[in-house]
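Q: Convert this sequence to structure tokens.
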Amino acid sequence: MASILLNHANIDEAADALTQAGQGMHAAMDDCMAAIKAAEAQLSGDLATAANAFYQALANQNSAMNNDIIQGADVLRVMHGLLRDADKRAAGGVG
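A:
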């Protein structure tokens, strides 16, 4: 009887790509936030208050985005492990 070999490497690659993209987005957001903070220092009154509120909103969203991306990559890796385990169990029952 022929054996079936399943390749799930693309799932690991997707998790790695997601992590790498997330790191790039996080770094870009940090750069944006640094520029806003620098501009805020040159502002006064309501405009400075608005810039600070915008900065805080971005900081919160940046953190949430980073956490979501990390969780997404972790879910892909868990899914990959489950698929490998299922393949091993199925292979043990075939033949």
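The chain has a mean pLDDT of 89.
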